[in-house]
## 1
Amino acid sequence: MSELLPLYRGAQVRAMDRTAIETLGVPGYTLMCRAGEAAWRLLRERWPRARRIGVACGPGNNGGDGYVLARLAKAEGFAVVVLAPPGTSPRAREARQALADWRAAGGRVETFDGLLPEADVWVDALYGIGLARPPSDAARAMIERINASHVPVLALDVPSGLDADTGHAVGAVVRADVTLSFIAAKRGLYTGMARDFDGEVRVDALGLELSRLSDEAPAAWLIRPDGLSRWLAPRHANAHKGEHGHVLCVGGEVGMGGAVRLCAEAALRTGVGLASVATRSAGVAALVAARPEAMTHAVEDAAALAPLVERATVLAVGPGLGQGDWGRALYAAALASGKPLVLDADGLNLLAAAPTPLPQAILTPHPGEAGRLLGVTSAEVQADRFAAAAALVRRFDCVVVLKGAGTVVAAPGEVPVVIGAGNPGMATGGMGDVLSGVVAALHAQRLPAFEAAVAGALLHAAAGDQAARIGGERGLLPSDLFPYLRRLANPE
């Protein structure tokens, strides 16, 4: 389906490359030429007025792809300069052949001396998917010069310096405008740090059929907003509110009532039949005035919460909950109820303080909360978001939505899903409260936990994108998403 893209680790793609060569009989140099041709076509399409092409070539097959592109550009009359770090020469047979063909066509390879020749577009062919260390000093200097030039960049396969599996880097990284991924999409390109460096990501299979290259499951799936329709079918004409679930939002300590209000309204805008709020007495009047459709209850202890829990389908616990005596009492009662849970914010902080398996739960941590749940830093979480999501799943035996650029949704026995939507404007207080309400509403509407988490994260991110198109990303408020949640929850 168009909305689903399989994502692979670098080792899986290298195995596919070997299968194409050894089993399907496609010569390695033929694949390299196809890669260079695909990249040249894309460059012409993306920058039709470019006449001076700079190609930064490294010692591996990625550099070979660059030599092919350079040869094709020169053959069409473009001014081409090929630049390599000092002491660099191709190692693989195919890359040596590509270099020989470039030289046979009259091309030269210039050694980088600290200066960057003028170009209208730079092609990054320094490393590719095999890099497992920081770039060399010379390559680092080249990368820094390319980034500082403010010239458009096309990265071949992966922006040099970036880990194709994790999307993280420990050294310099090429900042690309477009990345062309060969054979199959690499999972690291779609989450975390990578989203600052890879620009628009395209994939070219180089004429190969993925089904003939591997029967191994993808390392992840990327899902795009057009995938929402699979979960959000139109309702039948005789529908009633009891069919669409009842979400109980638990939170709103004194001074934090806005968080639980955002959660409840998000659940309503996502189509839940009933939404209730369990909050402090001091916040009831404001909540009723702001959103009368949410049934708001003054709950000062666990005993008062019990009848509300009994009537609910799903509990959303944590928005504005606090970590005082009141918050801890309601949190403990919610966990003891055995009801399906969506845990966020202080619900996650309380879980981190006393970890326990929660097979009935969906956790929605940002990297800081994920770090507290795992006993590591947020930087360690961001260094490998897939590994962090998997570790959370193992520790808590439940569905996990690891928020951030390229949100990762993981669950026991499931291939993780990366959300192909969302924008930096959504990095603001209250967005997680809205997400909690969206996910809880879809779970209450009978979507299984993993599907509710995927669909909820996708709906939330897509609504954020639509809201940002109206007024821009900076200054985007969580409540700005509400009209778009409703619109996207009713696909045509």
## 2
Amino acid sequence: MTEQPPARVAGYERRFNTLFAQYFDTLGTTLDTPSFSRFTPDCVELLRDLSLRGGKRMRVVLLHEAARLVTAEPVEGLDAAALSVELLQTHGLVHDDLIDDSATRRGGPTTYYAYREKFPGHPRAALALTVLAGDLALALSLRVLLEARLPTEVRQAMVEVQTRAAADTFVGQIVDLERDFSTTPPDDEILHAVADHKSARYSVLAPLRLGLLAAGEQPDAHEPGLSDYARLLGICGQMRDDYLDLFGDAEAMGKPTGTDIREGRHTYTVVRLLSAVSGAERDFVRRALGDPACTPQTIAEIRAIGEQAGVADRMRADMRQYAERARLVAESWRPRRREDAVAFFEQLPRWSVERAA
């Protein structure tokens, strides 16, 4: 493999960001919008702003590398698939930030808070317009596939992949909220199931399937390897997010830390923290858990407690363990798939963990 993951990822990111900007430049001319409407262009502009604001474009990377498992030649349909997966991601970000009542995302205001500022005297309108903005992004993610210049059967298969991925993600969001209503912290089996439905199936499995479809292969011929790899990489990704929420750098992430504590969320980090401490420290964490007024100082104290109790080290070890399991799944593809693409999938899990840690 001539390029390590960071260089390969950066190349895809640069190219796709240009493509995404061009897509939004022309989107206004393709939407059937009444001439009097001011809210619709505003909505599109907010979606554009959020969509183009940062992100590693790992879903784009995954679908391109999935196609490279089959061929090194240019593949028609990857641009449409890339737009689709990132528009679905934009939908998820808009709704996630609404669910979490988050003020910032990627160093700027969330769509919800942008609407709250735009309509300070109309909170219900701000809420409704945020929901509709997310819904529009979802519809656009499917429309871009339906309009792709691909054989009908390929377009239909891609739309089915994205529709199933969206449905799985919605179920994941539901069980994610349900998890936090439990009176006892969930075990890893529950946490893994949430990570699989909420994240892995749309962020990893769907891009892999779309890349293979674009390259002329049936994804079912690659099972169970695709699902196993996606689930393990998704668990790594969710652990990374949970780890960064307490132990990460807020300035580097572009959003505050401690959100999971304030929201009372039973994440990988929170569950491990509760199991690692006792007595006064556990009571301190318990009192903060679910307190929306929890101060940055309290979060810093909880972070220090977690570091002292070895929770940060354990989270990094767990991420590496699941990254290694994902690597072994990718290694099993070697006899049948192109060497350099397989090597990328082997290296990707550990690289993702190391950059998180």
## 3
Amino acid sequence: MVERYALEPLKSLWTLKAQYERWLEVELAVVEAYEQVGIAPKGTAEEIRKKAFIDVDDILATEQVVDHDVIAFIKSVTKNMGDEARYFHYGLTSSDVVDTANSLVLIRATDIILESMEKLRLVLYEKALQYKTLPTIGRTHGVHAEPTSFGLKFLSWYAELLRDIERLKRVREEIAVGKLSGAVGNYANISPEVEKIALEKLGLKPTPVATQVISRDYIAHLLATFAIIAGLIERIAIEIRHLQRTEVLEAMEPFKEGQRGSSAMPHKKNPILCERLTGMARLMRSYAQVAFENMALWHERDISHSSAERYILPDSTMTIYYMLEKARYLIENLRVFEEKVKKNIDITQGLVYSQRILLALVEAGMSREEAYTLVQKYALECWETGESFKERLRSDEKISQLITEEKFEELFKPDYYLKNIDKIYERFEKK
């Protein structure tokens, strides 16, 4: 993980020491289960707990000799033990420990990520309420379409985040599984009863069927969900980047005192945070792709997934957590230039009200085809000339005969487009 993007408390979950502590946690749960079923003498787990010492440097030095990280861990941790060491890793294979410990860290990381999502949820809803009645121009294909509510931008993101939170909660429950079933998953040297007892102590359930490893669809589903969450953050970032363009300038990401935007141009205020988040979303999709590739392993197991997971598990959890924390900072401190938002509605000299004119003519008795042709004729002319669409329409005798002056003026007011906004917001009042 790039150090500048590694935030606590996620960062501490992925240290080597924390990894070895989780391995020990799994080993101790198994010994306690052996005690419970009468295989290990009472007090064995307590003796192991007292004498086990995690020395990262010693484990790494041992690994240089044995070229196997779990064996190095076992040799180092049991150095000071007596007869109780016989029950340490008894009946287990390396993946029993590694995969079960991975489930623990992924659950703990997911819980932290969910907390961050909840904080972002509150901020988005607050902004949605703040800008609920601020009219803005809606854009489709990047082109001015019709006025809408600026708050709906935030409410749309909020609604998507609610779905993401539910998705991640479901995946969190799904990944809460472990595997303590031996070298090929058939419980030849450890019983399903011991597995069940040990996993319950860890807050996990047994995966229904295992090989030497837990099937990788669990991890693929989790990282795919992370990629979807990243997609929402990218969507937010790209919208703000567009709104910050000089020609638009309706919103701008925070620019701190003392911050500099360019080494060459002192005037620059660049959307660097939004661009960073956009780039990170690409990474999140790539991590998900690797997780998909890891699903197909040879027979009961090969280790082609192992090296990849040493990258994608810490990096994906830390990256999505960073993205969420920075997205919240971005939204909390976003500058919205309300007067510019309103002013930009009129850039096209009234063209954005073309559908209102069309419908008014239809209501007055004109056929839809005739009305569309007439309105489009004037609209396209105004695109080219830049003249006022409103005044051009007003000069047409046929239109003036069908639409009164009072009605005509009403057709060019942006507040009309906010008349049903309350109905949309009501869908979220109990969220």
## 4
Amino acid sequence: MGNATHKQTGPSPTVSGLSASTPSEGLFSTYQNGHFFCELTNTGAPLDPRIDLLRQRLNALPLDDLRTRAAQAEQELYNLGITFTVYSDKNAIDRILPFDLVPRILTQPEWRHVEAGVKQRVKALNMFLWDIYHDQNVLKDGIIPRELVVGNSNFCPAMMGLDVPGGTYIHIDGTDLVRDETGRFLVLEDNGRTPSGVSYVIENRHTTLRVMPDIASGIDLMPVDEYGMRLQNALSEVAPEGVDNPQVVLLSPGIYNSAYFEHVFLAREMGVPLVEGRDLVTENDRVYMRTTAGLRPVHSIYRRLNDDFLDPEAFDPSSMLGVPGLVQAYRKGNVTIANAIGTGVADDKAVYAYMPRIIQYYLSEEPILSNVETHICAEPEGLAYTLANLDKLVVKPVGESGGYGLLIGPHATKEELAEFSSKLKDDPSNYISQPVVQLSVCPTLCENGLENRHVDLRPFAVTGKDTWVLPGGLSRVALKRGSLVVNSSQGGGSKDTWVLAS
């Protein structure tokens, strides 16, 4: 496992296409990486023999065999009820997340680099959140514009002066990473509110081992099954002081939430009750769970609903999902909420642009994982650059997620560019822009065999007293040819992410 001071710059890959050891016949015989960095055919030197072994085993499979196994995997996922909800599609609300059987593989040096970078980032984010809700030195020292923080819709004045246990605001973090054409890992965005997708990491591994045991045989991989235990332990560690056996619960909005399967899955993995707001009550600034044996104290809440819905007395009075009096119990120190209220400031896409400075400010270190170059349209220079280069940039609304509301300039029509230009001029503070990163690709089973498809990576970090990063993470894949949008709501799928054990 890596440590937080590890500062390697990543592997030194080659980008010349298939390895000479790849057979000229079989599944890989027609595969082309398209001049992108490929996760299976471009590797650092020296070549890890286990990657070559994986390719040889996959290459030896008849295409029909792989298709049969893929169908078996899909049926298993369907039987398990592993679905997500697409609210924008009235004809197909519940869907199985498409799963591609060809795994993505990371070596130990690659993983140690990612792990160290994620730990560094989570530490800086927690220090940043503590500061902005206490002394606000980062604002006084001009490291980040004050209005970008206190004027942010996710900034929560109710959190001012509140001492959260261990200084941990982000207990569960999902950092979205991409690799560029050189194989370098870059941070695309931070997810410090209620990051989703970890259930797919674990189920993808189970499915791969059931459907392709011969492919994985003898390849020693870092396990992913301990996530639930790690999360339960971390939430117990940050429970209010003086509690010997903390009661942890997972608070869900309910069955109609897009990630409800994951809520059920994680509650089972953690061994804790899955509750909704109606199952909890506050008395004398303490939180209790309704049970058949009466009220039972609750000490840590892993919440999977947004701030606005948590407590109708503190936020939206029309919310039927939250718990009246929860925020008061929180402020009194009688319950821990993970992730903390108000963490959305830290994963705002405009604040993201300042993360290299934030890391340097709090840790006196250079970022282990660099940001993608980012232009803030709220700033005159950023807006001018974006408007002048709109056809070359990706433009994102700062408050959206899931791939909604963005513009990919090189793929946009003249009409779309003109329309987005007007949006930028009307509301520049709502947007940032970034260059188009030539995302890495991975061989993916398509209609005509193996083809390259773009992927990203979301490692999940769990923080209690210390930070632990789940080996690998969620590799999302853009299943449409040429698409750079990997989000499940936009037609993406996922892959099993293998981290070699040594």
